[in-house]
Amino acid sequence: MGFLGRTPQRYSKWYNLSMIKVNLLVANANDNFSSNQLDIFNQAVVAVEKFIADNFDLDYEVDVVVVSPSYLLKTIPEDGIGGRTYRSDLIVITVDTESELSEDFFYETLCHELSHSIRWNQVSEHTVTLLDDIVLEGLAIVLEEKAMNDSGRPNVQYFLKQMHAMDEQTANDILANLKNKLNDKEYDYEKTFISGDEDLPRWAGYKLGYWLIKESLANKCTEIASATLDSYKNLKNNLKTPS
Description:
By secondary structure, this protein is α/β, with parallel strands linked by helices. The chain has nine helices and five strands; from the N terminus they run E-E-H-E-E-E-H-H-H-H-H-H-H-H.
């Protein structure tokens, strides 16, 4: 088999023309994914479309390509899944076929990546500095979190559990390390957002972004959907940086 796509017909009563339409494409030339896993992908996509339609007024299409892992397409080992948004209309989700596939994990990852897709489709600007990237990822994590809460899905990924474990002291420590680099246009992405080092914890950029956006939304009584569509200038002006 080659690429397997979902049929465009929607069966849900809530479906309307003003929404994101996800074109699901599964790279399955070697039958890496079972029929049960393909059903899980499809079910998650329908649920994701509903969540986005409930929170945004959008009308565009996005291709979501599901692949098995390779040297260049990695997963979070603890979760067996990973995602990356390449353009507003192209998301790639990597699923470890050796791990037990969870619809909740696929749903969660796709909601995170769609945050990036929505911004790039609707907001006419891109990230320039480290702080911009921190804000971008913070928005995606908070939308991911809302998606899980709204759908009553308690089975969240290890990644999101680590975000929930954030506290003010950790945020202060990360910010103290990064404060002189926040306006840098070039920085070590791998160290800042993924691996960390002796001074930065793993996923430091994600953790700080999550903390800052959560605090900002709470202080301004703003919903994540409207923040997702706001400019970086406004978002950064509203940040409550740790003391």
